[in-house]
Every structure is written in structure tokens, then in C-alpha cells.
Specification:
single chain; alpha/beta; Aspartate Aminotransferase, domain 1; Aspartate Aminotransferase, domain 2; disordered N terminus
């Protein structure tokens, strides 16, 4: 009798078995492992994903603010399948059609004269390579970034990160200098564009402009609060960088590819950075891919100078094909326009929640990039959880959302609203109805 195959012997794992094995044999991000409580995901379609035990969740965070085109889009899946059958891998010294077509397409979409890209595996190493490029081009070592920022979990990207995730990963002398950014919220009152630019110029002067290679900023800050720059700020940053010979680098890993209602967030302010980093929405996260887009003043340096960088999976054929399929989906369904239109609908939902619930102190959104800030008192703006911490109320809100089938990020005193940019008005209403009920928990903690 033929030996029984492994696949024949295998049984379908239950949700409990999947979770137990994942916890036993794999490490989860950004948490003590005893706190890991993952959802066992089986399949997904559109703005929904389904657990192994059959529960449906509306994905109000696009997983990691990245599945912009929605789940299960056949154009992306078919592009990956076709490429896998033809050429699943070629080393980065080769040329192949998906690399050629994607480079050309991005040159059409990227702002201004940004018309060359270096492909990476994801966002963190896009930022790592942007730093490497900036230092090589300018001959300077220092990098300036902002405190309310996240640029990735690898060495220099983590050093540039300003938020508390940097603290346990400090590397000592990283040549990164942090500066305050425009912010209006419970931790600090209004910073105008003029004030923030004065802080930035003072920092440049104190550090020595001749020592600074680049200023890195998230065009719209993501996990640190969906912070939308005031009018004049990005234009002022561009002018300062030009004045002092510093490269302006915009991290659009989260805000790019339609999230804000434009292809790239900088398009709202008609500013062209020297470099722009991207990932997430580039492939809608169907497979990993990042990129650094650069202007001629950057890449022309390497016509006669060696670029000392490289990645085994640079320009991976499957990833480039996935990106082409993703951009096709964005264009055919006018998802960037949809993000703009549904962004107005989402803004009205935010306003209604703020009107109805005293725990909603502030709301911010641009396109389908949104956040609610919860407070204990609107007069004092005391947040519902402390900086870099949580509270029983925020934990209860997070638990309610999960139990009622809404997945999103609940971080510190905030709730994020970042659904796939293919979402429609009825699906938005469904998600906000669940949020509406959850916020009653927060209302119970409001005083005054």
C-alpha cells in the first residue's frame, strides 16, 4: 500500500490551534508575548476579512494602513499569478518587464521631476536607503527628523523615529537630530506653521547646516496621530532645505497611493521633495515592496559614483507585477477619487461623533486617513489614556470593537479610521455605527 502523504494526513487547523501554534513558535511585534491575542484570519474580500471560525470583521484600518485597494482584488492576484508562472525571480542586476513598466509608471505618477526609483523590500529599508543616498549625495552625515514620527523598525529608520518605540532601540551616536513638529492636541496646544518652521531653522543653525544631509518627515504623520500639516508648513520646509542645501525627504509609506485623496499627500500642497519613500499601498500589501523615488539632483550623482547599497530582492518580479496590478485597480476604479469623495463622508461621521459623544475631544482626517482623540474633559483636554499608555476605558473600547466585528488601531487615547480606499458610503456607515456604540464607554469616563 502506498505511503500516506503528509497532506493527506493533515487536518484543517481550528482557530484555537492556529493561534496556539503561532504563539508557541513565532514572535509577535511590539508587545510582551503574554499579551498576544491574535485573530486567526482565514480569508478576506473587499473591506472585510473573516476569521477561521467564521466571524466577519470590517477592516477599518486596512490592516496596517496598507491594503488600500481592498482585499482579494483579482487584478492584483492575477498579476502575481501570471508573473509567478513566467518568471518568479531574477537577481537585481537583471532587467525584466515588470521592473521596466513599474519604473516608467511611477515616473508618471510621482510628484514633479521625481522620475527614478530604487526598489526595496518595504518601508523601513526604503527610509534606510534614502538616508544612504542623502549622505552620499551631500557628503554630510546628520539627519533631522521629527518627534511625532515613525519611520520603521530597522537601525537608522528607528533612530529617526521620534515616538517611544525608539526608546528601547536607541543606538547611541546615530547622527539623528529630532525637532518638534506642528501639532494641536491634548499634549500641546496650537503650533502654527510659522512657529514650527522657526523651531526647525533654529535647530538647523544650532546643529550646523553644513553637517545636515536631509530632513525626513512623514507628509501626514501616521500612527502618531494623523497630523495634517498646516498650510505653509511644507512650502516653508522646502524653502529652508533649499536655502541650506539640505535634502527634503517625504516619507509617504502610509500616506501615499490614494490614502489622502491624492496619489501622494504632497500633491495637496504642490511641493516636490528631493526624495519620497513609499511601500504599503504600492502593492496594497499583497506582497512586500518599497521604493525610494528621487529627483535628478539625487540620482545624477551616481552616474559616475558608486551607490554602495543593494538588496537580494530589489526589483523582485512578483512584487513589481503586484504593484502594476494594484495601480491598474486604483486607476480603473478611480479609487483615488473615491478616497477623496468618501473622505468627505467620513469627515461628516467624525463631526457627528464629536457632536454626540463628549469623550471625543478632537477629530482629524484627510481623505480616508482619520483619527479620533478621546478625552476625559473637553475643557482641560485630558486624554482618556496617558502618553505612551492605556487605560481601562480605552481597553474596554478596543474590546467592544473587536467583539462587534470592527478592526482598527486603538492606540493610547486614539482610535484610527483608515479603511480601504475602495470603501463605499454604506460600508462606512456600518463601521461608524459600531464606533458610535463603543464611544458610550468613553462617555462614562467624562467629567465636567
Amino acid at each position: 500500500m502506498a505511503l500516506e502523504t503528509t497532506s493527506a494526513r493533515a487536518h484543517v487547523l481550528s482557530a484555537e490551534e492556529i493561534i496556539a501554534l503561532c504563539r508557541q513558535y513565532t514572535l509577535y511585534d511590539w508587545m510582551a508575548q503574554s499579551a498576544a491575542d491574535p485573530i486567526a484570519v482565514d480569508h478576506a474580500k473587499g473591506v472585510y476579512f473573516f476569521s477561521t471560525d467564521g466571524k466577519r470583521y470590517i477592516d477599518f484600518n486596512s490592516q496596517l494602513m496598507s491594503v488600500n485597494a481592498g482585499h482579494g482584488d483579482r487584478r492584483i492576484i492575477d498579476a502575481i499569478k501570471r508573473q509567478a508562472e513566467q518568471l518568479p525571480y531574477a537577481n537585481p542586476f537583471m532587467a525584466h518587464e515588470p521592473r521596466a513598466r513599474l519604473g516608467q509608471k511611477l515616473a508618471e505618477l510621482l510628484p514633479g521631476d521625481i522620475d527614478k526609483v530604487f526598489f526595496t523590500l518595504g518601508g523601513a529599508d526604503a527610509n534606510e536607503n534614502a538616508v544612504k543616498l542623502a549622505r552620499a549625495v551631500t557628503g554630510r552625515q546628520k539627519v533631522v527628523s521629527r518627534y511625532r514620527s515613525y519611520h520603521g523598525g530597522t537601525g537608522t529608520a528607528m533612530a529617526m523615529t521620534g515616538d517611544p518605540r525608539r526608546w528601547p532601540n536607541e543606538q547611541g551616536t546615530s547622527s539623528v537630530v529630532h525637532v518638534l513638529d506642528p501639532y494641536h492636541g491634548p499634549q500641546r496646544e496650537v503650533d502654527t506653521a510659522e512657529e514650527a518652521l522657526r523651531y526647525l531653522e533654529e535647530t538647523i543653525q544650532l546643529e550646523g547646516p553644513q553637517t545636515i544631509a536631509a530632513f525626513f518627515l512623514e507628509t501626514v504623520t501616521g500612527t502618531n496621530g494623523v497630523l495634517i500639516p498646516p498650510d505653509g508648513y511644507l512650502q516653508g520646509v522646502r524653502e529652508l532645505c533649499d536655502r541650506y542645501g539640505i535634502l527634503m525627504v517625504c516619507d509617504e509609506i502610509m500616506s501615499g497611493f490614494g490614502r489622502t485623496g491624492e496619489w501622494f499627500a504632497v500633491d495637496h500642497w504642490k511641493v516636490v521633495p528631493d526624495m519620497i519613500t513609499m511601500a504599503k499601498g504600492l502593492t496594497s500589501s499583497y506582497v512586500p515592496l518599497g521604493a525610494v523615488g528621487m529627483r535628478p539632483r539625487v540620482y545624477e550623482h551616481f552616474e559616475r559614483n558608486v551607490f554602495y547599497g543593494g538588496l537580494t530582492y530589489n526589483s523582485h518580479p512578483l512584487a513589481c507585477a503586484a504593484a502594476l496590478g494594484t495601480i491598474q485597480a486604483y486607476e480603473e476604479d478611480d479609487m483615488i477619487g473615491n478616497a477623496r469623495r468618501m473622505g468627505e463622508v467620513m469627515r461628516r461621521h467624525h463631526q457627528e461623533l464629536q457632536r454626540k459623544h463628549p469623550c471625543v475631544g478632537l477629530t482629524r482626517s484627510i481623505g480616508l486617513f482619520g483619527i479620533l482623540e478621546l478625552v476625559r474633559n473637553r475643557k482641560t483636554m485630558e486624554p482618556l489614556a496617558p502618553f505612551n499608555g492605556s487605560s481601562p476605558e480605552m481597553q474596554a473600547i478596543g474590546k467592544y470593537l473587536r467583539e462587534h466585528g470592527l478592526y482598527t488601531f486603538v492606540r493610547w487615547h486614539t482610535i484610527m479610521t483608515n479603511p480601504p480606499i475602495c470603501i463605499n458610503a454604506a460600508e462606512l456607515a456600518e463601521g461608524f455605527a459600531i464606533l458610535d456604540k463603543a464611544l458610550e464607554i468613553g462617555d462614562g469616563a467624562v467629567s465636567g
